[in-house]
Amino acid sequence: MNRTTTLSPSARFGTLLAAAVLSVLALAAPAQAQRDPAYEAARASGQVGERTDGYLGIVGQADRALRSIVDDINIRRRALYAEKAQAAGATLEEYAFTAGCLAIARTVPGEKYQAPDGSWQTRSSAPPVRDPRCP
Amino acid sequence: MTRSQLTSPRLPAHRGPMAQGIRAGRGAIWAMVVLGCGLAGGCITVSAPEEPIVIELNINIKQEVIYRLAADAGNTIEQNPGIF
Predict the structure, then answer these.
(1) Distance (Å) from the C-alpha of residue A53 to the closest C-alpha of chain B?
(2) What was the pLDDT predicted at B47?
(3) How far are the Cα atoms of A29, A132, B35, B41 from residue B38, in angstroms, in the given order?
(4) Domain spans of chain A?
Protein backbone atom coordinates (compact mmCIF):
# COMPACT_ATOMS: atom_id res chain seq x y z
CA MET A 1 0.00 0.00 0.00
CA ASN A 2 2.75 2.35 0.96
CA ARG A 3 4.56 1.68 -2.28
CA THR A 4 1.72 2.89 -4.46
CA THR A 5 1.61 6.34 -2.82
CA THR A 6 5.35 7.08 -2.90
CA LEU A 7 6.94 8.26 -6.14
CA SER A 8 9.55 6.13 -7.87
CA PRO A 9 13.10 7.60 -7.84
CA SER A 10 12.87 8.62 -11.50
CA ALA A 11 9.49 10.29 -11.02
CA ARG A 12 10.83 12.11 -7.99
CA PHE A 13 13.80 13.33 -10.03
CA GLY A 14 11.45 14.50 -12.75
CA THR A 15 9.39 16.45 -10.25
CA LEU A 16 12.50 18.07 -8.81
CA LEU A 17 13.73 18.97 -12.28
CA ALA A 18 10.39 20.54 -13.19
CA ALA A 19 10.41 22.53 -9.95
CA ALA A 20 13.96 23.71 -10.62
CA VAL A 21 13.10 24.79 -14.16
CA LEU A 22 10.02 26.64 -12.96
CA SER A 23 11.92 28.46 -10.22
CA VAL A 24 14.61 29.55 -12.70
CA LEU A 25 11.92 30.82 -15.08
CA ALA A 26 10.20 32.65 -12.24
CA LEU A 27 13.47 34.35 -11.24
CA ALA A 28 14.34 35.27 -14.79
CA ALA A 29 10.87 36.55 -15.64
CA PRO A 30 11.08 40.11 -14.21
CA ALA A 31 14.26 40.93 -16.16
CA GLN A 32 13.11 39.29 -19.39
CA ALA A 33 9.56 40.64 -19.31
CA GLN A 34 7.86 41.69 -22.49
CA ARG A 35 7.23 45.35 -23.30
CA ASP A 36 5.09 47.28 -20.89
CA PRO A 37 1.66 47.91 -22.53
CA ALA A 38 2.11 51.69 -22.24
CA TYR A 39 5.50 51.45 -23.94
CA GLU A 40 4.11 49.18 -26.64
CA ALA A 41 1.26 51.63 -27.27
CA ALA A 42 3.64 54.61 -27.44
CA ARG A 43 5.77 52.79 -30.00
CA ALA A 44 2.81 51.75 -32.10
CA SER A 45 1.34 55.27 -32.12
CA GLY A 46 4.70 56.83 -33.04
CA GLN A 47 5.00 58.88 -29.85
CA VAL A 48 8.41 57.33 -29.24
CA GLY A 49 11.05 56.19 -31.68
CA GLU A 50 14.45 54.59 -31.87
CA ARG A 51 17.28 57.12 -31.88
CA THR A 52 20.50 56.60 -33.82
CA ASP A 53 22.52 56.56 -30.59
CA GLY A 54 20.81 53.45 -29.21
CA TYR A 55 18.30 55.16 -26.94
CA LEU A 56 14.59 55.81 -27.11
CA GLY A 57 13.40 59.27 -28.10
CA ILE A 58 10.14 61.19 -27.79
CA VAL A 59 8.93 62.22 -31.21
CA GLY A 60 6.26 64.83 -30.53
CA GLN A 61 4.86 66.39 -27.38
CA ALA A 62 6.40 64.99 -24.21
CA ASP A 63 3.97 64.62 -21.35
CA ARG A 64 5.14 63.58 -17.91
CA ALA A 65 3.97 59.98 -18.13
CA LEU A 66 5.67 59.43 -21.46
CA ARG A 67 8.85 61.11 -20.28
CA SER A 68 8.88 58.78 -17.28
CA ILE A 69 8.52 55.68 -19.46
CA VAL A 70 11.26 56.79 -21.85
CA ASP A 71 13.66 57.80 -19.07
CA ASP A 72 13.17 54.51 -17.28
CA ILE A 73 13.87 52.49 -20.41
CA ASN A 74 16.89 54.59 -21.35
CA ILE A 75 18.41 54.26 -17.88
CA ARG A 76 18.03 50.49 -18.08
CA ARG A 77 19.39 50.40 -21.62
CA ARG A 78 22.40 52.47 -20.57
CA ALA A 79 23.20 50.14 -17.67
CA LEU A 80 22.94 47.16 -19.99
CA TYR A 81 25.10 48.80 -22.67
CA ALA A 82 27.74 49.70 -20.10
CA GLU A 83 27.92 46.15 -18.78
CA LYS A 84 28.03 44.57 -22.24
CA ALA A 85 30.48 47.12 -23.64
CA GLN A 86 32.90 46.45 -20.83
CA ALA A 87 32.65 42.70 -21.43
CA ALA A 88 33.25 43.22 -25.16
CA GLY A 89 36.13 45.65 -24.69
CA ALA A 90 34.28 48.51 -26.36
CA THR A 91 33.13 51.94 -25.25
CA LEU A 92 29.59 52.63 -24.06
CA GLU A 93 28.98 54.86 -27.10
CA GLU A 94 30.22 52.24 -29.56
CA TYR A 95 28.03 49.55 -28.07
CA ALA A 96 25.00 51.83 -27.79
CA PHE A 97 25.40 53.00 -31.39
CA THR A 98 25.61 49.39 -32.61
CA ALA A 99 22.48 48.50 -30.66
CA GLY A 100 20.81 51.58 -32.15
CA CYS A 101 21.59 50.37 -35.68
CA LEU A 102 19.98 47.03 -34.86
CA ALA A 103 17.03 48.51 -32.96
CA ILE A 104 16.22 50.74 -35.95
CA ALA A 105 16.49 47.74 -38.28
CA ARG A 106 14.03 45.88 -36.04
CA THR A 107 11.34 48.57 -36.09
CA VAL A 108 8.09 47.47 -37.67
CA PRO A 109 6.07 49.53 -40.19
CA GLY A 110 4.34 52.44 -38.46
CA GLU A 111 6.99 52.84 -35.75
CA LYS A 112 9.29 55.86 -35.65
CA TYR A 113 13.05 55.91 -36.01
CA GLN A 114 15.68 58.60 -36.33
CA ALA A 115 17.47 58.98 -39.65
CA PRO A 116 21.22 59.80 -39.72
CA ASP A 117 20.35 63.49 -40.32
CA GLY A 118 18.46 63.55 -37.00
CA SER A 119 14.95 63.70 -38.47
CA TRP A 120 12.20 61.37 -37.33
CA GLN A 121 10.98 58.93 -39.95
CA THR A 122 8.08 56.53 -39.99
CA ARG A 123 9.13 53.01 -40.77
CA SER A 124 7.56 51.66 -43.92
CA SER A 125 7.89 48.20 -45.39
CA ALA A 126 11.12 49.40 -47.04
CA PRO A 127 14.41 49.15 -45.13
CA PRO A 128 14.99 52.10 -42.77
CA VAL A 129 17.48 54.88 -43.61
CA ARG A 130 20.46 54.14 -41.42
CA ASP A 131 24.01 55.30 -40.86
CA PRO A 132 26.34 53.87 -43.55
CA ARG A 133 28.42 52.25 -40.81
CA CYS A 134 25.49 50.14 -39.60
CA PRO A 135 25.89 46.39 -40.14
CA MET B 1 104.14 50.67 -16.51
CA THR B 2 104.05 53.08 -19.37
CA ARG B 3 101.83 50.60 -21.15
CA SER B 4 98.94 50.78 -18.68
CA GLN B 5 98.88 54.57 -18.90
CA LEU B 6 98.45 54.37 -22.64
CA THR B 7 95.61 51.78 -22.63
CA SER B 8 93.40 53.46 -19.98
CA PRO B 9 93.27 57.17 -20.64
CA ARG B 10 91.19 59.25 -18.19
CA LEU B 11 88.69 61.83 -19.23
CA PRO B 12 89.39 65.35 -18.03
CA ALA B 13 87.36 66.27 -14.91
CA HIS B 14 86.18 69.52 -16.49
CA ARG B 15 85.07 70.42 -19.97
CA GLY B 16 87.71 72.30 -21.82
CA PRO B 17 87.24 75.91 -22.92
CA MET B 18 86.42 74.79 -26.45
CA ALA B 19 83.43 72.65 -25.34
CA GLN B 20 82.00 75.53 -23.28
CA GLY B 21 82.24 77.72 -26.34
CA ILE B 22 80.16 75.24 -28.37
CA ARG B 23 77.37 75.15 -25.74
CA ALA B 24 77.18 78.89 -25.53
CA GLY B 25 77.11 79.07 -29.32
CA ARG B 26 74.13 76.71 -29.53
CA GLY B 27 72.11 78.86 -27.12
CA ALA B 28 72.94 81.92 -29.14
CA ILE B 29 71.72 80.24 -32.33
CA TRP B 30 68.35 79.41 -30.73
CA ALA B 31 68.01 82.95 -29.46
CA MET B 32 68.65 84.24 -32.97
CA VAL B 33 66.08 81.85 -34.48
CA VAL B 34 63.38 82.94 -32.05
CA LEU B 35 64.23 86.60 -32.46
CA GLY B 36 64.37 86.27 -36.24
CA CYS B 37 60.93 84.68 -36.31
CA GLY B 38 59.47 87.58 -34.39
CA LEU B 39 61.24 90.29 -36.36
CA ALA B 40 60.55 88.86 -39.80
CA GLY B 41 56.82 88.41 -39.01
CA GLY B 42 57.08 84.72 -39.87
CA CYS B 43 54.58 83.68 -37.23
CA ILE B 44 51.25 82.27 -38.36
CA THR B 45 48.15 84.10 -37.20
CA VAL B 46 45.04 82.03 -36.57
CA SER B 47 41.60 83.63 -36.57
CA ALA B 48 38.53 81.92 -35.06
CA PRO B 49 35.80 80.98 -37.58
CA GLU B 50 32.46 82.78 -37.53
CA GLU B 51 30.31 79.65 -37.14
CA PRO B 52 30.42 77.62 -33.95
CA ILE B 53 32.59 74.54 -34.16
CA VAL B 54 30.41 71.42 -34.13
CA ILE B 55 32.15 68.22 -33.19
CA GLU B 56 30.35 65.11 -34.39
CA LEU B 57 31.06 62.59 -31.64
CA ASN B 58 29.66 59.65 -33.56
CA ILE B 59 32.28 60.07 -36.26
CA ASN B 60 34.81 58.49 -33.91
CA ILE B 61 32.96 55.20 -33.93
CA LYS B 62 34.64 52.95 -36.45
CA GLN B 63 32.68 50.65 -38.72
CA GLU B 64 34.93 47.71 -37.87
CA VAL B 65 34.06 48.11 -34.18
CA ILE B 66 30.35 48.17 -35.02
CA TYR B 67 30.69 44.98 -37.05
CA ARG B 68 32.58 43.30 -34.23
CA LEU B 69 29.86 44.22 -31.72
CA ALA B 70 26.87 43.50 -33.97
CA ALA B 71 26.27 39.88 -32.94
CA ASP B 72 26.70 40.65 -29.25
CA ALA B 73 24.38 43.65 -29.42
CA GLY B 74 21.80 41.60 -31.31
CA ASN B 75 21.78 39.01 -28.53
CA THR B 76 21.46 41.72 -25.92
CA ILE B 77 18.39 43.14 -27.65
CA GLU B 78 16.76 39.74 -28.01
CA GLN B 79 17.40 38.82 -24.39
CA ASN B 80 15.89 42.06 -23.09
CA PRO B 81 12.60 42.47 -24.95
CA GLY B 82 11.14 44.58 -22.16
CA ILE B 83 13.33 47.59 -22.90
CA PHE B 84 13.77 47.28 -26.67
Answers:
(1) 8
(2) 82
(3) 73, 48, 5, 5
(4) 35-122
pLDDT tens column, A55-112:
999 999 889 999 999 999 999 999 999 999 999 999 999 999 999 999 999 999 999 9
- The DSSP element (H or E) to which A48 belongs, if any, is strand A48-50
Sequential DSSP letters for A49-104: EE-TTSSEEE-S---HHHHHHHHHHHHHHHHHHHHHHHHHT--HHHHHHHHHHHHH
What letter would DSSP give residue A9?
Answer: H
Q: What is the mean pLDDT of chain A?
A: 85
Q: How many CB atoms lie within 10 A of CB A110?
A: 12
Amino acid type, A102: L
- The reported pTM is 0.61
Tell me whether residues A102 and B63 touch, CB distance under 8 A: no
Q: Which residues of A touch B72 (CB under 8 A)?
A: 84, 88, 95
- Helices (runs of H) and strands (runs of E) counted in chain B: 3, 0
